[in-house]
Structure formats: structure tokens, C-alpha cells
Amino acid sequence: MLTGEWLDIGWADEIPVRGSRTVQVEGGDDIAVFRTGDGRVFALADRCPHKGGRLSQGIVHGGAVACPLHNWRIALATGEALGEDKGCTPVIPVKLSGGRVLICRASTMQAAA
Ligand code: FES
To answer: Ligand 1 pocket by C-beta < 6 Å: which residues?
Structure first.
């Protein structure tokens, strides 16, 4: 049982502000780990709920990321499309510990399923 295990993926400072880095998941979607302008960190499956655009290549505005393909805005905290658009991408629990970014390993496995 992997519940409660956290995977250390590196320093928060190494994630570009208003940008992201990706974590590869064997057999599943990559995970996009975002850093907001005010230093918060979020993780989502790297797949837009519209047509699968790579959210990691989008720009973070406030608490959302704009998909690079058709500009849907996806809330980083919930994975839900904002405005008129409907859809949701999986959220990966993430926490900071001493400046390191930890993502929930069990959720990573679910995202890969
Ligand atoms: S694929 Fe993301 S907005 Fe269309």
C-alpha cells in the first residue's frame, strides 16, 4: 500500500516562476508541477481536459494555467476548466518540505492508470 508516501522531486526554486517542470510517469501521463508568482506549487496530470494539450507548456496566471493549444484556463488547485469550458484534469497532491517539492506517490500511480 503506497498511500501516504511522498516522492521528492527536487527544489521548489528550480521550477520556473509562472512555469512548470515535468515528472515522467512510466506508462502514464507525465505530471506537470507548477509554481505560481507567489511561490505556491501545484501538480496536475500534464494533459488538458479539452484535447490533451501539454499544460506544462502553458503560462501560469494567478492560480490557473493557460493551455498552449486553445487557451483554456485550468485551475491549478482543482484541475477544473474555468469560465465556460467544462472538463477536469487529475490533481496530484503536493507539499513543500524545507524547500523541497514532494508529490503523492499513490496519486502518481493513479494518474498513470
Ligand atoms: S487542448 Fe487545451 S485548450 Fe484545447
So the answer is: 48, 50-53, 67, 69-70, 72
